């Protein structure tokens, strides 16, 4: 039996045929034709999946299901609104069902899908209760309970980037103040380093950005942290202290077996994981007890295809 | 088939025989002999339950199970530490099993037990995913997933009073700053009203406490709120704004069907529920979607017996 996972992103669509061990056997991709509009993207996905199957001599009847990850929330009526894709309340689930009538289809938010991939075959394997934080431009999340993606009663759970954990000096894109996303995304790291530099603190980060403060990225901040640069140390220390607050609060709430950190920021896993358990322990109510193992994601971008393939 | 629930508190132990519809048929109580020590309390509970059964001509074989609620966390080895009861790492589960060998026994934290009672037969009835906040001296919580009490991988979940939601002007008893408990407990309401009064704001709350600021209680603050007293309005407005942040974050995380508010503070349910959904909506990521119904608990103190009876 094969499983198909499709990861729909703002620039490209990745499809993969996955075996029961979570191995991607074959893959194919196409561009996301945002200008062409919703129906065009849906048609392209249909062609992509069918070509992927044909080229590898696999009949759609040999497929258990096709799962889709989408960079948005899918509401209970199957509607999706996604600024990056130019979609406003499009009937996403309906459009998929029409094109893939002969097979079971499932779809979920991409961060939830990535968490499922990590829970099935990656950093959170063999755990029943696990949580993944995807730290990138924003902060996404996925909650796995009893081995399944958990998204709540109306499908809008697991948006843990918008749990409020403090007060911040700028508001979140969602309109609120204090969301985790404003403390622990790549964007928040860049913003805070820029803030300190603008306030006159000298930093090797600025050299890396060739003196153009707008060109600073999170990698430069982590690289300067390794050089003990003051701005970088302050920025990353703040980032980690809020990450520890968020994870401590999550442990006090859901007490998962494993918490995994994914997304672009997790490439600096050595810096993030260093001493993180001690920082988290400070925020845990039952300080003497064992708590969740903190790890970094291992499947990388493949988590999107693999997780989607195993939605059910 | 009967179910027995036992609610162990700092001053008394309440036991009840409950039918399958959640009705308490018979009840009996005894004092919690904190001075007598752990084994004495366990002996008293044994006598209490057996007398309750005998007096009502019910054989222990007719009992499905006995459940216990305890004002503490029970760790994975069955150990309990509870300052109120004078217990330090006592072998709670072992002591119960020794005394009730002939019947299945279960035990959980009392706030979790109350949530289960409300989910089975009270304010959160017929919901699969629900969350209860117990707002009293502290803030406890219970999370129900698929109709069962959810306490995580190590049994220390659902302590949602210690989720960090902001920065506060005093630290929590747990040692951290910003715990929900420091914004939304009865204690936090009293403290904030005292703070404003100490700063010189006139208030009818002080009259209610016969000019003794130490004697202010939460009921006085709610009563003065009804009279539009400035200190009370500021205090309750602040309390509700943080409650809305916590519940909005919970909806973004777990997206329950129902959130119920219990504990002593919930006696002012008209004030708490008034406009609360609009306040919460501000903190929800998907603002157009339906979200959890916000209600107040309906079983009162009986939730402790009823919920314990249905632990499994």
From TrEMBL, chains A, B:
InterPro entries with a match to the protein in the record? ATPase_NBD, ROK
Stretch forming the signal peptide? none
Q: Which family does it belong to?
A: Belongs to the ROK (NagC/XylR) family.
- For this entry, the protein name equals ROK family protein
